[in-house]
Amino acid sequence: MNNVIVNPDSLPAPSGYAHAVRAGDTVYLGGQTALDKDMNIVPGGIVEQFTQAFGNVLASLEEAGGKPEDLVSVTIYLTDVDDYMAHGREIGKLWRQMAGSRYPAMAGIGVTRLWQKEALIEVQGVAVIQDTDSAL
């Protein structure tokens, strides 16, 4: 089985990492912060950053031939767990708009900081694509 590196054009060009790697039907989605195409963390708070970070994950998944319902595991790293929890209803609504109401196994982990100092959140995941006839 060959691993396929997945780096969507809609995301910043990676240097020293891949946005995702597809190994057979499994897609390993690298951690995504709220970086936009110009390598800037989007302005705003946790809600805006969640939207961008999770959108980046979904862009990688789509480029690998998957869709949100293929997610089997998502890990969310947070610099302020209380802030995330305070906005939980809004973030949950955004999740459903972006990925539907089928939820994967999830973990939320508090950390002291992320790679970019301005980043409040990082999202990574694993997906299993059921359709083996996809483009990759």
Total E-strand runs: 6
The backbone outline, from C-alpha atoms, is globular
Distance between the termini: 12 Å
**Residue share in helix:** 25-40%
Description:
With 136 residues, the protein is an alpha+beta fold. The chain has helices at residues 46-63, 81-86, 88-99, and strands at 3-6, 20-23, 26-32, 71-78, 105-110, 121-128. The chain has a 6-stranded mixed beta sheet with strand order 1-2-3-6-4-5, with helices on one face. Helix 1 (46-63) packs parallel to helix 3. The longest helix has 18 residues, at 46-63. The protein is globular. The model has no long low-confidence stretch (mean pLDDT 94).
Summary tags:
single chain, 136 residues, alpha+beta, 3 helices, 6 strands, 26% helix, 27% strand, globular
What are the SSEs and their pairings?
Layout: E1 3-6, E2 20-23, E3 26-32, H1 46-63, E4 71-78, H2 81-86, H3 88-99, E5 105-110, E6 121-128
Parallel strand pairs: 4-5
Antiparallel strand pairs: 1-2, 2-3, 3-6, 4-6
Quick overview of this protein structure:
With 136 residues, this protein is α+β, with helices and mostly antiparallel strands. It contains three helices and six strands. It has helices spanning 46-63, 81-86, 88-99; strands spanning 3-6, 20-23, 26-32, 71-78, 105-110, 121-128.
